[in-house]
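Dear support,

I submitted the protein below through the web form. The confirmation email said the job was done, but the results page showed an empty box. After a refresh the structure appeared. I'm attaching both so you can tell me whether what I see now is the final result or a partial one.
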Amino acid sequence: MPERDGYPAGVPCWIDTSQPDPEDAAAFYSRLFGWEMENVMPEGSERVYLIGRIRGGDVAAISGQMPDAPAPPAWNTYIAVDSVDETAAKIADAGGRLVTEPMDVMDAGRMAVAADPEGAIFSLWQQGQHRGAKVVNEHGSLNFNTLSTRDPERAKAFYGAVFGWGTLNLGGGEMWTLPGYGDHLEELNPGMRAGMAEMGAPKGFEDVVAALMPLGGDQPDTPAHWSVTFAVDDADAVAAKAGELGGKVLVPPFDAPWVRTTVIADPAGATFIASQFVLENKDLGAPAESGASAA
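What the results page shows now:
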């Protein structure tokens, strides 16, 4: 898969996590995924923003946690927009709210943090010098973003109004789609559509940008939230290694449609999903919370 150099508006483009001890977190993820870490904050800054890279390409970032930040930490999803300020106005009109007002991040870009009507937190990113993740869909990089919600219909109305998303029903779950995104991917990676058809991907899957998963009655204490999935070559090996490095395997590796997947908490408690693509699993039953390709 070629490296990315920017994202169309409406596509998840970046992830980061704020941690109580960013150096410890950086050590965990660099050992787990092979990331090379660099603090990109100006010299003398009291804050750190450690970007993890694969082959020199940005993958994700780890920052220090503010004193009043909620615990445990979480992984944050950023969605690309052409204008943070214009999108922020749409969020309020659609029933969401701003957690932080639009602000410039030096010359990297402009951002805001928002909550949807159910309280799921996500961020907006208007690119400047930082154009999002360069490496995706390979071992140790972003593969999926998933919204878990108790009110899918309300979520569809909100995200449709803000980002123009539709949905693709896959029987056991739904995916968020952005009309025309498949054209962008085909231009980036000629033959993508043919490859998807050969593997048996559902019609329209090339426009998928994220996933939508309902929260069931067996999860009464789980709030609506966005989660991230990292692609891995071997889900069982990553789960074992995470445990050795001080993380916790919350859901042991299991087979689901197209993947073998596991849910892990890092040493500070931030959860993420690790997903191994398994073509032979494509005809298995209903999908678990694994998400949609970030390609």
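Response: this is the final, complete result; the empty box was a page-load delay. The first helix runs from residue 22 to 33.
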